[in-house]
Design the sequence.
């Protein structure tokens, strides 16, 4: 192997100095320096650890749980009873409202729960039993509903705006904003496990490279690609691999016409960095084994019991990988959620995820909304319980510093024909989202709903008081979520102070 010029001379000088010191012993200055280092070493190391602990003690975690296709807030935590619509002078038969027996209200909470039972005929008569009340009873102190108004009913566009606040921070996604603050030093700060516009990269060119998201298409097998040799029988030794890489870099790539032509290209530079420094970081961190969701390392076995259907349900596999990455110090933001692909263990009657997810409400609104909300709440509940069980620091759990943002494209139309229980719905800009966190202003509905139209309206950003006629824009929600996570939003032009979203 090649050696740098002067290396031999430097080695010879160092050996001569060492021999001289061994022969005469340390001089007085050297002895004082060594004694001081020995005496202060433990203290210096302790301070170094303390600084490291202090840096991570303020870390926060963001989980973006996306509801692709339009998770409707009026079919969950802001649902209306038909009697309320009638009392307000509305037409309950023509509006998406529920019979009182299908709703659960709580004496100590403004939140609602829909307990819907029915079938989805177009899915082979699939039986649906969506009971949301158990989730609300269990988690209401950490649940905050924020009314919203979107600016697009096109899926990918609306999904992207749901995570950028409609380009509020120079096009930086909320995941990137969180990773740029809390992800420094993490090998995979921003893990993108979901689908659609929710996992697209932002366009802020000033974003630190470590905060850019890494897209994972198959959580069950993905981690094996984080090592050159993990899982391979009789793999070459690291020494042999190092020689092969040096031959590739110096003798094959370097002289090639292709490399010399494109070596200054950002794409080429990123590729060289990824297969060099990034690969070394992944392998030194032992991520292949640590994030193997079917392995025996870390919490894999425990999580496989919590999410037993991970082998055929990609949403559960995503949840396992997200929990492992967060609690192993690998990730500070993970994005996951059910997508547009059918998930079924058997035939139509065992469908867990219908075609096009929430958007299958075009075919059967109430049944699909109940099915998909139950799906998301079930996975979220299990993730929260796992994060609660893992200590982060000084007696606090990972959940104590986490936030779940239920991002969604848009809402659904409110019209139903002649009081029907089975009907179709379209896209609608008006909606609301669920936010869950011990740091959020929990057990609250920020904003309100007009019982005559079932349309939501906004709130005062400082007090949280409902304000009919006001709309919570995408930028407002984006800013408020970051502020809950204790991130400075001064870089956002005219960012509002969403004090009402923060727990006091």
Sequence:
């Amino acid at each position: 192997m090649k050696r740098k010029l002067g290396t031999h001379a430097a080695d010879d000088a160092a050996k001569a100095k060492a021999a001289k010191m061994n022969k005469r012993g340390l001089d007085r200055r050297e002895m004082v320096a060594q004694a001081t280092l020995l005496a202060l070493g433990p203290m210096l190391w302790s301070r170094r650890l303390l600084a490291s602990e202090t840096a991570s003690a303020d870390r926060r975690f963001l989980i973006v749980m996306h509801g692709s296709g339009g998770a409707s807030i009026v079919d969950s935590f802001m649902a209306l009873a038909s009697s309320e619509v009638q009392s307000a002078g509305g037409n309950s038969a023509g509006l998406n409202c529920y019979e009182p027996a299908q709703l659960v209200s709580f004496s100590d909470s403004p939140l609602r729960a829909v307990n819907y039972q029915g079938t989805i005929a177009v899915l082979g008569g699939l039986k649906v039993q969506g009971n949301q009340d158990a989730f609300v009873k269990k988690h209401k102190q950490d649940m905050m509903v924020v009314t919203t108004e979107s600016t697009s009913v096109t899926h990918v566009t609306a999904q992207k705006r749901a995570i950028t606040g409609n380009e509020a921070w120079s096009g930086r996604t909320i995941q990137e904003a969180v990773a740029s603050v809390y992800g420094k030093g993490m090998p995979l700060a921003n893990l993108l496990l979901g689908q659609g516009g929710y996992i697209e990269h932002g366009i802020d060119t000033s974003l630190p490279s470590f905060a850019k998201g890494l897209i994972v298409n198959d959580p069950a097998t993905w981690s094996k690609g984080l090592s050159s040799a993990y899982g391979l029988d009789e793999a070459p030794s690291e020494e042999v691999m190092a020689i092969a890489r040096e031959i590739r870099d110096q003798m094959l790539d370097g002289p090639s016409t292709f490399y010399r032509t494109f070596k200054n290209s950002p794409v080429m530079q990123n590729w060289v960095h990824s297969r060099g420094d990034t690969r070394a970081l992944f392998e030194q961190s032992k991520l292949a084994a640590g994030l193997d969701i079917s392995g025996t390392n870390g919490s894999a076995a425990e999580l496989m019991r919590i999410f037993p259907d991970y082998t055929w349900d990609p949403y559960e596999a995503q949840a396992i990988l997200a929990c492992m990455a967060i609690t192993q110090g690998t990730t500070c933001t993970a994005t996951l959620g059910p997508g547009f692909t059918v998930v079924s263990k058997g035939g139509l009657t065992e469908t867990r995820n219908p075609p096009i997810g929430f958007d299958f409400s075009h075919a059967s609104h109430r049944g699909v909304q109940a099915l998909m909300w139950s799906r998301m709440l079930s996975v979220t509940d299990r993730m929260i319980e796992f994060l609660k069980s893992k200590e982060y620091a000084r007696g606090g759990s990972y959940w104590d510093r986490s936030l779940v943002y239920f991002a969604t494209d848009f809402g659904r139309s409110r019209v139903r024909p002649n009081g029907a229980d089975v009907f179709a719905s379209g896209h609608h800009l008006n909606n609301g989202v669920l936010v869950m966190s011990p740091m959020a202003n929990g057990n609250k509905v920020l904003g309100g709903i007009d019982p005559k139209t079932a349309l939501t309206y906004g709130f005062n950003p400082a007090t949280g008081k409902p304000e009919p006629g006001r709309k919570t824009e995408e930028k407002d929600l984006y800013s408020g979520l970051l502020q809950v996570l204790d991130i400075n939003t001064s870089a956002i032009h005219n960012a509002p102070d969403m004090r009402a979203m923060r727990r006091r």
